[in-house]
Amino acid sequence: MSDLSLMEYEKDAGFGDYFALLKPRVMSLVVFTALVGLVVAPGTVHPFIAFFAILCVAIGGGASGALNMWYDSDIDAVMKRTAARPIPSGRIERGEALSLGLALSGFSCAMLGLATNWVAAGLLAFTIFFYAVIYTMWLKRWTPQNIVIGGAAGAFPPMIGWAAATGGISVESVLMFMLTFMWTPPHFWALALFMNSDYDAAGVPMLTVTHGRRVTRKHILAYTLALAPFALAILLTSIAGPVYAFVAVVMNLLFIKGAVQIYRRSEAQAEADKYAVERKFFRFSLFYLFLHFSALMIDALLRGYDLIGTGVFGGLLGGTF
Ligand code: HEM
Ligand SMILES: CC(C)=CCC/C(C)=C/CC/C(C)=C/COP(=O)(O)OP(=O)(O)O
């Protein structure tokens, strides 16, 4: 094989490259929250419809990831973490990612609407729009509040799942939205603390770049403290049970403890252990959200088998809009 054909061969896109455009790792947790939203909602959904609805959310989420990679390929090429992605590494053309993103967006929303209802499909369409246009094209390059406002995109999926099952929006689904929405800043800023040089090099105005790490540490603590009441407010609704109560109390105490530790750290300490505590806090953030939604799912199953009653406090808060 000549050098030229070897280079061309290396640049050929495989299935894995197209799959990578869909950001499967990040989307796995997003899709899980949608599944929980659907499972904990009142009423029953045929398992096939439920599976199909979640598949549509997965495809829609993936589509928004492809649109993000299409628009952000310049930034991705500069950042070490993202430089090997299919577009900056030259294996997939930008136009291909755009076409794939648009086609899958249209397909997933239409299929979700036909299989369930148009409230769920409308929410999915809005979520894709919010991530691809509002966050990616606008907020990300403009303001250090990018991920605070943009975080709404990642918080809609439990509402989509709930709407797929009920056709509506409710206090419970809004609280699941708020849980994810308030969780996003500590989740992302922890990562930004140890990935700051990437964002700096790419000129992305993340809080660590515009205001420095000290201010970011303060913001992580503030948002972690503000998150806890929302996590605990779910206890007042009918979807929470004893498992959720245990998880919410323990995990919020641990998350706050971690955030206090992050706040107290000096940059010299962080440099000395290569941001080990910040990396741990980021991993813990993923576990935090996964466990909250898992607990809601377990409580729903226990309730389904009549092993527990409705809500920890009898479901004081609730109701469909
Ligand atoms: C604006 C909102 C968000 C931003 C800016 C953000 C940013 C990030 C970034 C930059 C990473 C590292 C990804 C990588 O290494 O390629 C990451 C990882 C991750 N994020 Fe987020 N995130 C956001 C919201 C969410 C939401 C809502 C969820 C789920 C509900 C989520 C789930 C995850 C997961 C599961 C990972 C780990 C992926 C892996 O293991 O590679 N993120 N996030
Ligand atoms: C339709 C649907 C279910 C959508 C959910 C999409 C969504 C908002 C997911 C979480 C957000 C996310 C992947 C942010 C990554 O930020 P970034 O794009 O700045 O990260 P990067 O630097 O890794 O590209």
Short description:
This protein is mainly α.
- The helix count comes to 15
Which fold name is given in CATH as the topology of the largest domain?
Tetracycline Repressor, domain 2
Question: Beta-sheet strand percentage?
Answer: under 5%
Cα(first) to Cα(last) distance is: 65 Å
Uncertain segments are 1-9
Number of strands: 0
How many domains in all? 2
For the record, the CATH architecture of the largest domain stands as Orthogonal Bundle
The CATH homologous superfamily name of the largest domain equals UbiA prenyltransferase
Mean pLDDT: 95
- Overall shape: globular
Could you say which structural class the secondary elements and strand pairing correspond to?
Answer: mainly alpha
Helix content: over 70%
- Top-tier CATH class of the largest domain: Mainly Alpha
Instruction: Give me the Rg, rounded.
Output: 21 Å
Biggest sheet overview: none
One letter per element, helices H and strands E, the order comes to HHHHHHHHHHHHHHH
Q: Write out the distinct hetero groups bound to the structure.
A: protoporphyrin IX containing FE, farnesyl diphosphate
